[in-house]
Structure formats: structure tokens, C-alpha cells
Amino acid sequence: MSREIDYGNLMHSAMRGLIRTVLQDISENGLPGNHHFFITFDTAHPDVELADWLSDRYPGEMTVVMQHWFDNLTVDEDGFAVTLNFGDSPEPLYIPYDAIRTFVDPSVEFGLRFESADEEAEDYDALPEDEGEPDSAEAPAEKKKDADVVSLDSFRK
Questions:
Q1: What is the H or E stretch that residue 13 is in?
Q2: 58-67 contact pairs (CB < 8 A, 24+)
Q3: Structure confidence at residue 28 (pLDDT)
Q4: Residue 155 needs a FRET pair 20 to 30 A away by CA distance; which of 9, 18, 106, 110 works?
Q5: Rounded distance, CA 152 to CA 157, Å?
């Protein structure tokens, strides 16, 4: 019987916990300074709640901005609800943490990106065969990736 530590899922859980903590603070105290968020999420996730016209317009993914105007931000263990303004039409959304693909705060050059195993396999399969070896930082050790590595270097000042 072989048991392995699933570092990839543990890291995703920790990063989603970070998002939950940040959003909980924002719901209690508001956005400080120039902080604002770009949140890209999977609109087809079964637990996402949004107006039909928004899901029709964004059938795969959608990026929302929490900056100047948002209302009714509530945070729970599985996701968050917020009302955002779409062309002078306030719309309530519920976004589970599992549906989030990217979370970026450009004011401090911070960002998180979540990739599924399918996306990782597609990225690997898309490498041209005649390109030779990719840079060691990008080279997957094998077709099935065992862990997710998150590099925050490009977001540091």
C-alpha cells in the first residue's frame, strides 16, 4: 500500500485559504489604499451563481474587478458572494473558491493562478517536438505533473 502527499492540492487549498482571508478582511474593513482585485473564474462551475445573461455572455470564464464599487460582500468556507455593477446594472454573484482560476491584486503586483490537471497536460502536449529541450524552469519532469509550482517573482517589486 503506497501513500503519497498531494502537495499540489495542499498548495491550492492554502492559496484558496489566503483568498478567503483577504476577502473576509475586505468585507469587514473595506479595501485599503489602492488595492483592487481581478478575479477570473469558471462560469460553468456547478456552484457558481450569476445572472443568466452573464453566463450566456461568458460561457467559459469571466474576469470581474473589485475596486471602486462593490456591495454585499459575504465570505464563507466555500466561496464568496458579491454584488457588482455591470453597465449600471447591479448583479449578485456567488463564486466558489474552486471556480477561481486567477486572483490578482495589481496594486502590489500579487497574483495567484490555479491550473487543473487537464490544463497542465494540454500545456505539455502543446510543446512542439522540434523545439528541443525547454528551459529547465518550464520543463515538466514527465507528462503527468506531480506538483504545482507557483512563482511569485514576476509580481515582486
A1: helix 7-29
A2: 61/101, 63/38, 63/39, 63/102, 64/38, 64/39, 64/93, 65/36, 65/37, 65/38, 65/39, 66/26, 66/31, 66/36, 66/37, 66/39, 67/31, 67/36, 67/37
A3: 93
A4: 9
A5: 10
